[in-house]
Amino acid sequence: MPAYVLLALLTLSLLGYLLFLVQTLMRRPLPYDADAVPPRWHALHAFGVLLLFLVFAVDAQAGSQFVAAVFDRPTNGQFALAVQIVLMYVANGFTLFVIFSIAARSGAPRLMLGLSGPGAARSVYQGLVMFILFVPLEIAFPVVVDRLYEVFLHKTPPPQDALAAFLTADWPLVVLMTLAAVVVAPIFEELIFRGFIQRGFERTLGKPIAVAATAVIFASVHTGSAIGVKVLPLAIVLSVAYARSRNIVANMVFHSLFNASSLAVVLVARHAGLDFGVGYP
């Protein structure tokens, strides 16, 4: 069987599996009180928070280069990247403050943002189940995207900047990046994108458009066209899951496990001396 036919069949199979996951999540009964009180924010608030998130991302990069220059360190080195990570999440602490301030107008910010779930144990279980179901897509979908990139654009897709940095980083930076990816990013990104932006879109545009728009935006903020496409299935599942469960903690668990497993694969490959096309000492 020709390689192109196999690639097409694999692509269709993965898209079919993604559709199966979405349909499975959509059959989950919505908690009876999850939407009892509509959010006090709408799409304009959501766009404002998204803009704030993006501005802080740009500022963190510029600030890290400034700090690196002050300390006479390379502006594209590990020191600058560490400063950028810290500045990014410190600055977005203000974004979370804005989100909670707006949600507090309802008198129940934890309920509005999905933090009033069924309990920690149940939330962890739901996040774990979602992650296990998603593993086939996590493994196979990036491989298919890379192959399609090569077939249609006739070049190798560029590696993700964060992956390249993680492969070449000294251990202090590895620890910082792991903490950011596994603990901090899932909390910040789920509250910002699903808890606030998606719900703001829902109030103005309705659930289907809100889920699609949030998933596309979330994938787009991950730099690079190929990388954004690879993240899209994750973004879709996270958005659909939150639309049905209103449990942001389960989303955080799923998001954290996804990032942790991805980094674990990279660490194992690094320890084994494998190369992802970026090289490391």
Give a structural overview.
The longest helix is centred in the last third of the chain and has 35 residues. The N and C termini lie far apart (40 Å). Helix content is 78%, strand content 0%. It is globular and about 50 Å long. It has a domain of 184 residues. The protein is built from 10 helices and no strands. Helix 7 packs antiparallel against helix 10 and helix 9 packs antiparallel against helix 10. With 281 residues, the protein is mainly α.
Shape: globular
Radius of gyration of CA atoms, rounded to a whole number: 20 Å
Total strand segments: 0
- Please bin the fraction of helical residues: over 70%
Q: What's the rounded overall pLDDT mean?
A: 89
Number of helices: 10
Residue fraction in strands = under 5%
Spans where pLDDT lies below 50 across 5 or more residues: 276-281
Write down the secondary-structure element order. Answer: HHHHHHHHHH
Question: How is the biggest beta sheet arranged?
Answer: none
Span between N and C termini? 40 Å
Find the structural class using helix and strand composition: mainly alpha
